[in-house]
Design a protein that fits this description.
Elements (H helix, E strand, L loop, with lengths): L1 H13 L1 H28 L5 H4 L7 H18 L2 H7 L4 H35 L7 H27 L4 H26 L4 E2 L2 E4 L5 E4 L2 E2 L6 H13 L1 H9 L6 H25 L4
Antiparallel strand pairs: 1-4, 2-3
């Protein structure tokens, strides 16, 4: 395992996909700081540092999809995985070594965003002033678990498909579809139970008053429980909750992230052991 990790990390630092993802996330951090500073200069109100610090969450599915599919796709195209197996490394060890390096790469992309935010944002806006420091620690912990779940899912996809172009396309489309699905799920869960009463004036000057009425799209019962489960279970749903600093579902999110990671890794190792490596 040690030799595999050493070789993987050596290749990671030279991999153009990893460097591109790091540069992308650093640039995104710079964009967030620049946007906040522009708003501050123009209107006197900027985005708080504690609100910007998790701005990367909504992009991690795409970053993980691109980085992991390119990194592991190169292993297949260069014959690296076949060589590792030929010299006697166990398939489970090869799989876990790749998973660990992928996890470090994804977390490093997060760190690139945060580093730019701290190095440039603090001199411009001052230090963090969180109303609840425990909230930042909790969201940071949930982010790490979410990254690990994304890593496990895309490592599974990439280790079981030797076509780099195909697995890259499938991974990116999967991240996109999950993000769209989670956006829809979140919008349904945020539907109000009752539409508040309101009054408006017509073009002819008549005043119309509407009484409060129930929202037919409000989710209740089992349907709401299913939507809530999917919102907590899917890494893309967790992205949106972390991005918006949602509270109250931390335990469920942590549990489901661990579950996705374990199930994806376990099934990936099981299938990889039986895979015919060409």
């Amino acid at each position: 395992m040690t030799k595999l990790l050493r070789a993987n990390f050596a290749r990671l630092t030279k991999h153009c996909g990893f460097r591109s993802c790091m540069m992308f996330m650093a640039s995104y951090g710079l964009f967030m700081v620049g946007t906040s500073y522009y708003l501050l200069c123009k209107s006197g109100y900027g985005i708080l540092m504690e609100n910007m610090c998790f701005g990367y969450a909504g992009l991690m599915g795409f970053v993980a999809a691109v980085f992991i599919s390119l990194f592991l796709g190169t292993e297949y195209s260069d014959g690296t995985i076949r060589n590792k197996l030929t010299v006697g490394h166990k398939r489970s060890t090869v799989y876990l070594a790749n998973l660990m390096v992928n996890a470090v790469g994804v977390l490093a992309a997060n760190a690139a965003y945060v580093a730019v935010l701290l190095l440039i944002g603090i001199p411009l806006f001052g230090p963090f002033r969180p109303t609840d420091p425990f909230e930042l620690l909790t969201l940071t912990f949930l982010t790490v678990l979410m990254d690990l779940s994304w890593t496990a899912v895309f490592t599974l996809c990439s280790m079981l498909n030797q076509n780099k172009a195909a697995v890259t396309a499938v991974s990116i489309l999967s991240a996109l579809m999950l993000s769209l699905a989670s956006g829809y799920i979140r919008s349904r869960l945020n539907e109000p139970k009752v539409f508040e009463p309101y009054t408006y004036v017509t073009d002819k000057g008549y005043e119309i008053h509407k009484e409060a009425e129930e929202n037919p799209y409000y989710l209740e019962g089992t349907e709401r429980e299913v939507y809530t489960f999917l919102n907590d279970f899917l890494p893309s749903g967790q992205e949106l909750q972390i991005l918006n600093h949602d509270r109250g579902r931390e335990r469920q999110m942590a549990l489901y992230s661990c579950l996705v990671t374990v199930l994806s890794t376990g099934s990936g190792i099981f299938i990889f052991k039986k895979k015919d490596i060409k």
